[in-house]
Amino acid sequence: MPPLRWGIASAGKISHDFTNALSTWSKDHHLAVAVSARKLENAKSFAQLHGIEKFYQGYEALAKDPNVDAVYIGAINPMHYELGLLMLDHGKHVLCEKPLCMNEGQAKKLLAHATEKKLFFMEAIWSRFFPTYIHLKERIDAGDLGEIKEVDVEFGFLLSDVDRLRMKGLGGGTVLDLGVYTIQVSLWAMRAVPTKIVANGQLNEEGVDMEVNAELQFPNGSVAKMKTSALRKLRNTAIIRGTKGTITLHDFWCATALTDIDGSRKEFPLPRAHHDFNFPNSCGLRFEAEEVRQCIAGGKLQSASVPHSESLTIARIQDEIRKQIGVQFPEDTRFKA
Questions:
Q1: If the chain, 337 residues long, is cut into consecutive pieces of 10 residues, what is the mean pLDDT of each piece?
Q2: Which residues contact 129 (CB under 8 A, 6 or more apart)?
Q3: For 4-127, which CATH class?
């Protein structure tokens, strides 16, 4: 199987971390071959740092590069939809940073387009490919936790001055930036679609959410309690409680450690990379990259761990939470689910 040749769309912090994580695999498996950014000098310096041969100003040139098999989209939230369409229209498989789109309407159109083009497309819910998440799934599948009754998850840091989170024009707010993680871990444990959502939140002067409390209620009476905040650091764990036992994921969005049912702590260390990372445990981005390679090699258009249906459920929950707390983006009037 030849290496998967990656194009990197955007030269920002998360793209650096993804490309750095990619380099921890053998070049026989993964190869970053091109990068594009809005400013040529940014693409050039990114390429020099990571040893990438080609760099482009703008994204169309990357889409047209015949040597690129798959594109990682690390651009800001409002760009995901257009960039996703662009890459698909030029025959590229896509791994798109979360949140997939600004709302469910966009996500539906984008995923339908990927299916029509017969190309692989996955929202980058990287958490689910960590060994901790695989361990949790195996425990649930084996019935070791019994029936899952509650997920209690908090995700918060002091981020109120970070532009991508505080500004409406950049697709800000904790629901899209942090809430996607609390939602996905709840769905990973519950294996169901919530029947009721109750939410309240605190908005900033831009009209985006800085803190949110939400509850997802499921058909069997189980509940996911979620809290996100850009105003303060929270405990940042996900506690999964079943009728037979409890598992806690520490730093749950990038968990390299968990407390198992018997109270023992299990560690799953990450390898070292060539450069420092911008965000915690970002070397774990290597796992989702390998999932993309394996799926494409197997002729799959979706990952079983983050199928299109799950991305649409996440988007639908985000939309409902935003609706209840009064956060609206221009895309909400243009793209109806």
A1: 95 98 97 98 98 97 98 97 98 98 98 98 98 98 98 96 92 96 98 97 96 97 98 98 98 98 98 97 98 98 98 98 97 88
A2: 284, 287, 288, 290, 291, 305
A3: alpha beta
Start-end of CATH 3.30.360.10 domains in the chain = 131-267+307-334
Q: Which residue do the tokens 């999932």 mark? A: 291
**Token code pair at residue 105:** 């309407």
What's this model's pTM, rounded to 2 decimal places?
A: 0.97
Kindly provide the residue ranges of all beta strands, DSSP E only, lying in the chain, ordered along the sequence. Answer: 4-9, 30-37, 54-57, 70-73, 93-97, 121-124, 148-156, 196-203, 209-217, 223-229, 237-242, 246-250, 257-259, 265-267
Rounded to whole angstroms, the Cα distance separating 164 from 145 reads 38
Write down the H helix ranges in 51-178: 60-64, 80-89, 104-117, 131-141, 163-166, 174-177
Within the chain, all domains assigned CATH 3.40.50.720 are found at 4-127
Residues 99 and 110: beta-carbon distance below 8 Å = no
Q: 131-267+307-334 has which CATH code?
A: 3.30.360.10
For residue 107, the model assigns a pLDDT of: 98
Q: For residue 3, what are the CA distances in angstroms to 69, 85, 88, 292, 299?
A: 9, 24, 20, 12, 15
For residue 278, the model assigns a pLDDT of: 97
Q: Give the pLDDT of residue 1.
A: 78
What whole-number distance in Å separates Cα of residue 68 and Cα of residue 11?
Answer: 16
